[in-house]
Amino acid sequence: MKAADEKNPFADPGLPPHEPRIQDLDERAAKRSERTVALLFTLSMLATVGFIVSFVTIPVDQSVYIFMLGHVSALNFALGMTLGVALFAIGAGAVHWARTLMSDHEIADERHPIEASPEVKAKVMDDFRQGAKESVLGRRKLIRNTMFGALALFPLSGVVLLRDLGPLPGTKLRETAWSKGKLLVNMNTNEPLRPSDIIVGSLTFAQPEGLDPHEHGFMTEIAKAALMLVRIQPDDIKDKQALEWSHEGILAYSKICTHVGCPISLYEQQTHHALCPCHQSTFDLSDGAKVIFGPAGHALPQLRIGVNDEGYLEALGDFDEPVGPAFWERG
Description:
Elements: H1 22-25, H2 27-57, E1 63-66, E2 70-73, H3 74-100, H4 118-134, H5 141-153, H6 156-161, E3 184-186, E4 203-208, H7 218-225, E5 227-231, H8 240-244, E6 250-254, E7 266-268, E8 273-275, E9 282-284, E10 290-293, E11 305-307, E12 313-315
Antiparallel strand pairs: 1-2, 3-4, 4-5, 5-6, 7-8, 8-9, 9-10, 11-12
Helix pairs in contact: 2-3
Subcellular location: Cell membrane
GO molecular function, one term: oxidoreductase activity, acting on paired donors, with incorporation or reduction of molecular oxygen
Subunit structure: The cytochrome bc1 complex is composed of a cytochrome b (QcrB), the Rieske iron-sulfur protein (QcrA) and a diheme cytochrome c (QcrC) subunit.
């Protein structure tokens, strides 16, 4: 311990007296700690095996009821629990090992510059140049080129493993549940829509016929196929294609905002503007749903519609471009 003086006004309190642990005095206590650490590491191994078994055996669509959580994915719950236990057991075992069995004598070391001395720097550079010379990479071009090739190709192994993340998307991002002849069904009543159901100034939400909310994959499909219908006097429709793709002034646009995919639900009938409530992107539905304000970068895709022999509104095809936020420059 150093006393305070003029140069160092604060006294060094020093280290407290060392107190031995029970494991330092009793070998049986040390053995118990050793078994505890081994048990934790064994638990981690079992949890890792459980993680692998869960990944292989539990179906993706299986659910399980967990108290306080409700119904959750059995696979996600099993993977999260086993991985969490595996990591926690390793950490707890390492901490218990360090606190009870490793040396606990405190060692103080004076601070010193971490920069190497000029002599050490010079020696390191000399050793590097000598090593480069002895490697004969300059003369053995075959070895050099094949080594670079091996190092460049090796990371591809990790890229290939990414293939196991799931099935390839194919054209799913470019296609929706809409197709020629699909009826426009009211989202609220689940009934097919007639032109008379859409009045001027109203906003109606629709979906393709055949989508069942209780079926697996419904949310994925409706996230791409959700539709909003608005009726405008044909003389007020500015965009020529929008008018051609409408029916008696009924326009069908994607309900999914092209900014970050929020559902559009606000409509101002005097201006024919639709507003996204998330970030206030505004679209002019009378002018091809072009963006007139906000961060959205693209107009809302329009669905070409008509009327079938029974007088119901139907789609005449799919959207002509991907819906929602831009990806890969709109596909």
